[in-house]
Amino acid sequence: MTHSPADTLSPPASDISAVLVLADGTLFWGYGFGTEGSIVGEVCFNTSMTGYQEILTDPSYAGQIITFTFPHIGNVGTNMDDMESNKPACRGLVVREMITEEANFRADGNLQDWAEANGLIGIQGVDTRKLTRYIRDNGAPNGVIAYSLTGEFDIAALIAKANDWPGLQGMDLAKDVSCLETYGWDGTRWSLKEGYGEITETDTHIVAVDYGAKDNILRCLAHTNAVVTVVPAETDFDTIMALNPDGIFLSNGPGDPAATGEYALPVIHKLIETGLPIFGICLGHQLLAIAFGGKTYKMHQGHRGANHPVQDTRTQKVEITSMNHGFSVDAESLPDEVIISHTSLFDGTVCGIAHKEKPIFSVQQHPEASPGPQDSFYLFQDFMTNILKNKAA
Ligand SMILES: NC(=O)CC[C@H](N)C(=O)O
Questions:
Q1: C-alpha 289 to ligand 1 mean position (Å)
Q2: ipTM score for this prediction
Q3: Which BP terms from GO are recorded (predicted)?
């Protein structure tokens, strides 16, 4: 069933049960699913055609309402394997077509039930193409999804709620989604035949600082033959070094990198001085850039999808990548000691930096995919090469 909502103040049909209200009063009517109630967040869009469960469980989406531009969301259901964290950190989801019964051999549940079990609020039957064009033209707005089976909404109150929320700029969310305690990780990547594997014998140890890490990053690190110890975002330098790491990983995560520096930067500054190999992804990349003296800024609409072309400036090779970020590193702000190793072929923004002498590098794209192409997996291998070289020196 398709439905074309209209921008009117009262529901355009009697069975309407949800509305997405943007801060400027723009309304998108639709049908609610998941948990009844209302939730405020930054409304962004993701253009991936597959992998909605991985996207919904990526902790970097904390504080955000995800619009899926691909119309058929929910069609492959949900399963236990496609979780990128224990539960979704995003605030809600907006989808085009009404969610149908799941049809996939891997499914063990339905997206609507899964959303309800995870306390997520969703709205379906929305003109997501119109919403995406709105975001493209105006930037990512604050918005509220309200879901009520009565079909009654106090639109003025919902507009006020959208405007009262301070927005992602200046918001530190990493410590909210980070693990509370240190834990070990030895799981490797998934394959259709074997499912997930596990590392058995290795003497290489990576400490991963968890600002909101996706599980597949930890799997990729382990896959290159290392055991990983994951530590909470606010772990201090001495505690990290007491774990005897051979390499340090700085994870992805939500929120504004400039607001996350308070506890992250002093530690990263000291880690840089140890001479240990360091690898950062997304928020970890942005924090590393700030630690080197760079600056970050909020992008107009961000990059979220699974087909973003990125060029390695050293080899000219192009990799098609998975992206999820709304902040970016300012190229002009970077000091001489680092090079820009990767750039976006969509808009020329910085997608990677590498220190000229130290074994330290980071990227904005997601080499772990989940979902998305795996062209950038070599970055995990490069990190391991740095670790092995450093151990042998
Ligand atoms: N995936 C991420 O790590 C996102 C980093 C940061 N929160 C941003 O939006 O740019």
A1: 13
A2: 0.98
A3: 'de novo' pyrimidine nucleobase biosynthetic process; 'de novo' UMP biosynthetic process; glutamine metabolic process; L-arginine biosynthetic process
